[in-house]
Amino acid sequence: MPSSFDYAVVRVVPRVERGEFINAGVILFCLEQKFLEARIVVDEARLQALWPEIDLELVRRHLEAIPKVAAGDVSAGPIARLSLRERFHWLVSPRSTIIQVSPVHTGLCEEKPEAMLSELEKRLLWTRND
Questions:
Q1: What angle do CA 56, 57, 62 make, to 5 degrees?
Q2: pTM value?
């Protein structure tokens, strides 16, 4: 039986005033299967092409926190102790910083949510192997 899911794309917006962004991650939430996971792919060369002075280490640290919060990793702080639903809504809440999230999209998956997340990662995140 298909399960409904919600997902959002994590974006890096190096210069907010320009509105240019690079997709850097995907967050997928499936309440029916008690699943919340985020995957991050950082293409440093593309980020530096948009903004040569970008602090890549700072961006990387902020992006690396997203999968930890999704997984409920205690090292991610008090947000990681929230319920799956609360963590998802916190992760996808609008921000006006360098790390932003797309609007939430919905879908149905016939398979396990992990497979759908892998498919979204493949379709939405640019990697050198593409």
A1: 95
A2: 0.92
Report helix, strand or coil for 32.
Answer: coil
- Give the single-character DSSP code of 14: S
Angle (nearest 5°) at CA 70 between 115 and 57:
105
Tell me the per-residue pLDDT of 15-72, one tens digit each, with 9 for 90 and over: 888 888 999 999 999 999 999 999 999 888 988 988 899 999 999 999 999 999 999 9
Place of tokens 């992006």: 63
Within 8 A by CB and 6+ apart from 110, the residues are 2
Write out the two tokens for 75. Answer: 């090292």
Residue 107, CA atoms < 13 Å, CB-side half-sphere? 15
Tell me which residue of 48, 74, 70 sits closest to 59, measured CA to CA: 48
The DSSP H or E segment spanning 89 is helix 84-91
